[in-house]
Amino acid sequence: MALDIDFVRSQFPALSSEWAFMDNAGGSQTLERVAARISDYLLTSNVQTGASYEPSLRSTERVREARRAYARFLNVDPSEIVMGASTTALLRYLSEAMTGKLAAGDEIIVTNTDHEANIGPWLKHEARGVSVKIWHCDPESFELDLDDLKALMSERTKLVCVTHASNILGTINPIRPIADLVHEAGVELCVDAVAYAPHRALDMQALGADYYVFSSYKVFGPHFAVMYGKGDKLAELDNIYHFFFSKQSVPHKLEPGNINYESAYGAIGAVDYVEELGLKAGASAGRPAIEAGFADIAEQERALTERLMDFLKNRNSVRIIGRRSSAIEDRVSTVSFMVEGKDSKAVVEAVDPAKIGIRHGHFYAYRLIDDLGLMDRNGVVRVSMVHYNTLAEVDRLIAALEPTL
């Protein structure tokens, strides 16, 4: 069944405005049900968890419900869900918690296609004698080559960090083959999924990553984030909370200061929403509905991407930064490009009067834009769509871009 776009758009109050939101990789619009949950938590159960009195028991159960929801979303056990303020924060916590596992002479591999959130925290270990190597993409094809990763690895490699989908390139990286490669060498894998999570179903059993992180405010929810870690891996990490938390206090030892309870409860609404899309498509509840919901999401986004890509590919002045394919298996609906002889800031500002939200810059993937020599052009123009965007909105964007291209 095709996605019911009228139902979809009715779930996001902001979409009733005159603006077309195509800066979704920076943050999606929020579901009405998410806001309702946050309000309900704050107005009816806003007390500290862990006490014996009834309102506290209710608050505690609501936070547990959030772990269960995201366990369902990721196909893992609730005890393997760590929650926090953002992907940047959770990766900082993970890096700190891995201090005891890393010694001078050990090696970490990161990519130059990643958001700085999955690079900067690992560079901190260089002060302790840990070597950080960069896995570079090809500057012409923008692809990461697994043979290059093999060449970088050694017997001292402890961790490989990679993005599931680049927030600039839109490219979907082959996480399972990467996981198999690094695990064969006894190495762990940390995946930043921020730019992937709004677009495809997430199945940790199929992907095989040791750590997998994304932000719910990119997936129709509040400013909040979730990290999956394999149970045995989380148990091995250092406690980064108060001293009286044991090493076995998973996940709480990795959630210093406690989590934002109302955001955790609110974020459940985003999981329920995707599951509802699958139920409307005829799937059974739980994982089947989540997978079916994302299948419809992926097809809607493929059509949007194809419409925009066909336009851009037919303009000699445009260089697409990333794969030129619109195929579901190749990329997500984040499309970046440059215009010959034009500053990216000027291109975006020419679109603003049409009330279409797109963006220019390095998008915190600073090292990639710098390596590609695009910093002096104000980075790339980025159009980042999600399933609630429409072909009519893409046509509006094309009409607004045409005079500039």
Automatic annotation (TrEMBL):
Asked if the Swiss-Prot or TrEMBL record annotates the protein with the keyword Transport, the reply is no
Outline the extent of the Aminotransferase class V domain.
Answer: 21-397
Q: Which domain of life is it from?
A: Bacteria
Keywords, in A-Z order: Pyridoxal phosphate
Question: Cross-referenced Pfam families, in alphabetical order?
Answer: Aminotran_5
**Transmembrane annotation, as ranges:** none
InterPro entries xrefs: Aminotrans_V_dom, Cys_dSase-rel, PyrdxlP-dep_Trfase, PyrdxlP-dep_Trfase_major, PyrdxlP-dep_Trfase_small
> Which protein are we looking at?
Cysteine desulfurase family protein, VC1184 subfamily
Q: Which species is this UniProt entry from?
A: Fulvimarina manganoxydans
Show the taxonomic lineage: Bacteria, Pseudomonadati, Pseudomonadota, Alphaproteobacteria, Hyphomicrobiales
